[in-house]
Automatic annotation (TrEMBL):
Cofactor requirements of the protein: heme
UniProt organism field: Melanomma pulvis-pyrius CBS 109.77
Protein name: Cytochrome P450
Tagged with keyword Amino-acid biosynthesis: no
InterPro entries, per the entry: Cyt_P450 (IPR001128), Cyt_P450_CS (IPR017972), Cyt_P450_E_grp-I (IPR002401), Cyt_P450_sf (IPR036396), Cytochrome_P450_monoxygenase (IPR050121)
Length: 484
């Protein structure tokens, strides 16, 4: 009885202390915190659970859009977080070298001492990595890699040929994912994953989607990872985790077994390259980390873009007809479609790609940056707001791309907005400044040339060889052969 009473009293005391702490902390965050004047959802002022909850529901992008419409161009989305929705903020944040990539991205580290381009915080280390990895993603590397890319694109076209012969419905989201991941794995590891021709490894598509969802959840609320909730789920997750690790191991083993320059892949372009400024190179472990990161980064980005563009073209017959006409009059044959002046000269194709990137950005999240707490220089100012040290700030890509001040009728697929000469130069500049699907500044996406090359070739070839139309409301399309 005595021990029961002691345990009960202790539990009550601990509960009381917890409640008192919450009251004190929450009172401070509401009334006295440096960010207390900024509007935003009440729960977000108290805890980062607000962002994590909506990330869990996969709706944080449009919730952020809704909150901006309700509270204005600057909202408080967490106790120490501000989200902006203006062109001025984009440049004040992402072109400001005093701001650090948020510590929250460290949740993606596989090992405490191994960083990749996505999670490296240190500016100097990032620049070194960027210059080295850039050797494998620049336009010169893409020209060398193009024959491998073309082989995968031809497999994609053969799948469409079969669908055309069978007069069947195809899910372009699925086909785009298989194609893009096959290409990104070829570039990262020189390995044929075979998603387009074999069902064996297609589980990786859902695995990457789940991983992206999980990473976003942790970035919004890093404390969640420290709870090690995943250990409770390990019995259920372990088979798939081991399956993924075995696949990566096989890819590394396969590539290591052949000569360094046997294939035009990241290993060939980067291995042995030393940064001209620092003299540093990537260790094999760092290189494989970058290659592993490249799989979802390049594959998911490009597949989202292509699936979105097929979706919008099938629902906008005027845009579809204009683009098909441009492709079919520019090229004399499907084999003629490759990187070069003709492809880059297809201005309406580029406009359609940019409009798909705008309306459905592959990364619809907020790219967080931290204001250093030990920075004794002048205050950081973002769009006229003095930002207190220790604040996490960013611009949500989905929201800025749907800001009516920069993009009239923002939810309408309108490629002409990028080519219309009647639009004033000032409006064009504002629109181009707000268009940031690959971010800007020194942290901008290194894979931008690859995304544009791959998507341009795939869309151009698909429209040269085929006609397609909307099948139903689930973003599918019926594909039919077209002959000149």
């Amino acid at each position: 009885m005595f021990f029961t009473d002691v345990a009960t009293s202790t539990a009550k005391a601990l509960l009381g202390l917890l409640v008192l702490r919450c009251v004190l902390v929450w009172s401070y965050r509401i009334l006295f915190h440096p960010l207390h004047p900024y509007p935003g959802p009440f729960i977000a002022k108290l805890t980062d659970i607000y962002g994590a909850y909506h990330a869990f529901r996969r709706e944080l992008h449009w919730i952020t859009q809704r909150d901006h419409e309700k509270y204005g161009s600057v909202i408080r989305q967490g106790p120490n977080k501000l989200v902006f929705n203006s062109v001025a903020a984009i440049h004040d944040i992402y072109q400001n070298e005093r701001l650090l990539k948020a510590q929250a991205y460290l949740v993606t580290q596989i090992s405490p001492k191994i960083f990749n381009l996505f999670n490296v915080i240190d500016r100097k280390l990032h620049r070194t990595k960027r210059r080295i990895i850039g050797q494998g993603l620049n336009e010169r590397a893409m020209r060398k890699f193009q024959p491998v890319m073309m082989q995968q694109v031809n497999v994609f076209l053969r799948r469409l040929v079969q669908a055309s012969k069978d007069d069947t419905v195809v899910d372009m989201t699925e086909l785009s994912a298989h194609l893009s991941l096959d290409i990104s794995v070829e570039l990262g590891f020189g390995y044929n994953l075979g998603l387009q021709t074999d069902e064996k490894n297609r589980w990786i598509v859902n695995a990457i989607s789940t991983s992206n969802w999980r990473i976003n959840l942790y970035i919004q609320w890093p404390f969640l990872k420290s709870l090690n909730v995943e250990k409770l789920l390990l019995p259920f997750l372990l088979p798939r985790v081991l399956q993924y690790h075995r696949l990566v191991r096989d890819m590394i083993k396969s590539r290591s077994a052949i000569a360094e320059h046997a294939k035009p892949d990241l290993f060939s372009f980067v291995s042995g390259y030393k940064d001209p400024e620092t003299g540093e190179s990537l260790s094999p472990r760092e290189l494989w980390s970058e290659s592993t990161f490249l799989i979802p980064a390049a594959g998911d980005t490009t597949s989202t873009l292509m699936a979105a563009l097929f979706f919008y073209l099938s629902r906008n017959p005027g845009c579809y007809k204009r683009l098909a006409t441009e492709i079919r009059t520019t090229f004399s044959s499907g084999a003629d479609i490759r990187s070069g002046i003709k492809l880059s000269g297809c201005t309406y194709l580029r406009a359609c790609i940019d409009e798909a990137l705008r309306i459905t950005p592959p990364t619809g999240t907020t790219l967080w940056r931290d204001v250093a707490t030990d920075d004794n220089l002048a205050p950081v100012i973002v769009d006229g707001h003095i930002i207190p040290p220790g604040t996490r700030i960013g611009v949500n890509l989905y929201t800025i791309h749907h800001n009516e001040a920069y993009f009239p009728s923002p939810f309408v697929f309108k490629p002409e907005r990028w080519t219309d000469d009647s639009i004033s130069e000032e409006s064009k500049k504002m629109m181009n400044d707000a268009f940031t699907p690959f971010s800007i500044g020194y942290r901008g996406c290194a894979g931008k040339p690859m995304v544009y090359l791959e998507s341009s070739m795939v869309i151009a070839k698909a429209l040269w060889f085929f006609d397609f139309e909307q099948c139903d409301a689930r973003s599918n399309a019926v594909v039919q052969g077209w002959s000149k």
